[in-house]
Design brief:
By secondary structure, the protein is of the alpha+beta class. It contains four helices and three strands; from the N terminus they run E-E-H-H-E-H-H. The longest helix is centred in the middle third of the chain and has 22 residues, at 58-79.
C-alpha cells in the first residue's frame, strides 16, 4: 500500500507504505506538538495511508517542514538499510524536501 503526504492542495508526495511510515516516524519523536505526534502514530498504526500537512496549525506545519528540510536526508542515509535501492530511496526523500519549497513554505 502506498502513502500520500499532502503539503497543500496540488503539492503532494507519494511513497511505498514502508517509506511513508518511516517518514512519519521520523517526525514523531521530534515534534513539539504531542497531539499531532499521536495523530501520526495513529496514521501508522491504522495504515491510514495519508497525511495532510496543510490541515495542521501553521506553526506545526512550519515545524514539520523544518524537520524534513534539516534532517530527513541525513536520517535516511544513516538509518535506512543498505540495499541496492537506497540511493533511489534517498532521492525520493529529497523529492519530499523539494516539494516543501514548491508548496511555498518559507526558508
Amino acid at each position: 500500500m502506498a502513502g500520500l503526504i499532502v503539503l497543500k492542495p496540488g503539492v503532494d508526495w507519494t511513497a511505498t507504505g514502508g517509506l511513508f511510515d518511516w517518514t512519519l516516524e521520523f517526525l514523531i519523536s521530534r515534534l513539539g506538538d504531542r497531539q499531532v505526534a499521536g495523530h501520526l502514530q495513529e496514521i501508522i498504526d491504522n495504515n491510514l495511508g495519508s497525511f495532510w500537512v496543510s490541515e495542521l496549525p501553521q506553526d506545526t506545519q512550519t515545524e514539520i517542514v523544518n524537520h524534513w528540510r534539516r534532517g530527513l536526508i541525513a536520517a535516511g542515509e544513516q538509518d535506512l538499510p543498505e540495499t541496492e535501492q537506497k540511493a533511489d530511496v534517498i532521492r525520493h526523500l529529497q523529492e519530499l524536501v523539494d516539494a516543501t519549497y514548491s508548496a511555498g513554505y518559507p526558508g
